Amino acid sequence: MYQKILLPVDLNEAASWQKALPTAITLCKTFGASLHVVTVLPDFKMPMVGAYFPKNFSEKAHEAIKEAQHKFIQDNVPEDIKTQSIIVDGSPWEAIIKVGKKIDIDLIVMASHNKKKFVDYVLGPNAEHVVHHAKASVMIVR
After folding, report:
1. Which domain holds residue 9?
2. CA dist., res. 121 & res. 114, Å (int)
3. What sign does the CA torsion over 36, 39, 106, 102 have?
4. I need a labelling partner for 5 at 20 to 30 A (CA). Which of 16, 22, 69, 114 fits?
5. pTM strictly above 0.85
6. Is the pLDDT of residue 132 over 70?
7. What does the pLDDT look like over 86-127, one tens digit per residue?
8. E strands within the chain?
9. For 51-87, b where at least 16 C-beta lie within 10 A, e where not — what string?
10. CA separation for the pair 132, 81 (Å, rounded)
C-alpha cells in the first residue's frame, strides 16, 4: 500500500519524532516501504535573515544538521529499512509538502505539537498546514 513514507524530524525537539518514528518504522516494515527523514532549517540565505549571521553560516548549519541527522538515523532506524536523509530550507510545513511532491511520497507520518492556543492544542500549526495542503495521505501521531 505504501512505498515511500516521509517523516519530518526536528532534531532539537524529541517530541517531533518520539511517537511518530516507531509508527513510521512499523509501517515501513509492514509494507516494505522506504523511509525519508526530512529536517527543515530556517532559510538563512534570505537577505533580511542572512545579514544577521556570519558568512558561510548556512553551509555550516547544513553540514552540522547533515551529520546529526545521519547519527539520528543510525541510532534510531533499523538497518533493514531503506532510509534517505533530506535537509531543506524554508517554512516547515511548506518544505515538507514540497519534498513530498518532489519524491512522490505515499504517506507523511508526523507528530502533533501541543502549544497554548486551542487550535495548536488540537493539532499543531505545522501539522495542520500539512494536513490541509498535502496531496499525499498524512498520519498524525499523538
Report:
1. 4-141
2. 4
3. negative
4. 114
5. no
6. yes
7. 999 988 888 989 999 999 999 999 987 655 444 443 345 677
8. 4-8, 34-41, 83-89, 107-111, 137-141
9. eeeeeeebeebbeebeeebeebbeeebeeebebebbb
10. 29
